[in-house]
From TrEMBL, chains A, B:
GO BP term, pick one: response to stress
Key words of the record: DNA-binding
Protein name from the UniProt record: DNA-binding MarR family transcriptional regulator
PANTHER family: 4-HYDROXYPHENYLACETATE CATABOLISM PROTEIN, TRANSCRIPTIONAL REGULATOR, MARR FAMILY
Pfam families registered for this protein in UniProt: MarR
InterPro entries: HTH_MarR-typ, MarR/SlyA-like, WH-like_DNA-bd_sf, WH_DNA-bd_sf
Length: 169, 169
DNA sequence: AGAAAATATATGACTTGTCACGTATAATTT
DNA sequence: AAATTATACGTGACAAGTCATATATTTTCT
């Protein structure tokens, strides 16, 4: 084997710059930062986990619903809720009752204690959203969301389709 | 306790709509979808993990570098690489040698086998980026990246600052 | 009515990512 | 030169998320 090639600082810098404009690199990083920031905010508001916060918020806003409904609104996998909810029930934040009409379903309902936990975290999280709105105008947010809509569509297209695609450009 | 409130389909729909325009909900969902799509593409190109692919790509583009350099370019935590690299070395994709000038560092270098694995996955992943460029113009990508830059800045500001902020609006 | 298909939930195994902390080495200060 | 501080890496513990598979219940089809 040949002797070690040296580290080339210029090539690294160039590579870093390339990756800076790669959506598939920036998206994970932005998400990770968002998760960290979310957790830090929540530490100031009763130390809920992110999943717990989202769930309390949704239940507060929309009333009782099934696990699937929660997963749907949160755009996440039901298994995440399936695992988190028993703990939330044990903490007294929610009740879980089997559906009367459809016995497959679990109806999740906010308890008073859950509403209290929500009330404690809510103003902190409202501040977060308010702070975001000082960085981005409503119009910008709308464009941003529009991009995410289109990106979502793209990301959910079957890989086979995309691979077969004639790359015209 | 009062009897169970019924599920209110209209409220659920409204809540779903609200969350649809919440950046903090859409970002995780978009990232998760991106990760799934990335993995599916990689299954067509030698079954690398996402971390492995990123690492082979960076090493191919920029030559040998330290673990910290890799983490830096990928905008991720060094511990992720610290765990992934020994496995990549065992698979024969990279070598890890202690830095001569700075003995704290590990210099990661692509092997021939690593270059082969890269060459196998690269055209598939290039297709992915090409497909994305058919959905978004270069100008749109630039705006998108600009949003992500600004979002990153926001997400990295200390929570205390944001909480103390007078929310003027 | 009975069989087949679809749906709701639970659970094990896995990946990506963070943080905190420990250890070794290098750089800086006194 | 010695002591302090900073940096690079490794590792344990955790969170958020996916997927596949199993089970129970509904719905649909014959």
């Amino acid at each position: 084997m040949s002797e070690d090639a040296p580290i080339d600082a210029k090539r690294l810098q160039k590579r870093r710059a390339q990756e800076d404009s790669n959506i598939f690199v920036r998206l994970p990083a932005a998400y990770a930062a968002s998760r960290v920031q979310g957790r830090r905010f929540l530490q100031h508001g009763g130390d809920l986990s992110i999943v717990e916060w989202r769930t309390l918020w949704d239940l507060h806003e929309a009333g009782p619903m099934t696990i699937r409904d929660l997963a749907n609104i949160q755009r996440t996998d039901h298994s995440l809720l399936s695992r988190a909810l028993p703990q939330m029930r044990d903490k007294g934040y929610v009740t879980m009752t089997r559906g009367l009409e459809d016995a497959r379903q679990i109806i999740v309902t906010l308890t008073e204690k859950g509403a209290d936990a929500y009330a404690k975290a809510a103003p902190i999280m409202a501040r977060r959203r308010a702070a975001l709105r000082e960085e981005f105008t409503d119009a910008e947010i709308a464009v941003f969301i529009g991009f995410l809509d289109r990106l979502d569509d793209f990301l959910r297209r079957p890989v086979e389709d995309l691979l077969q695609m004639e790359t015209v450009k």
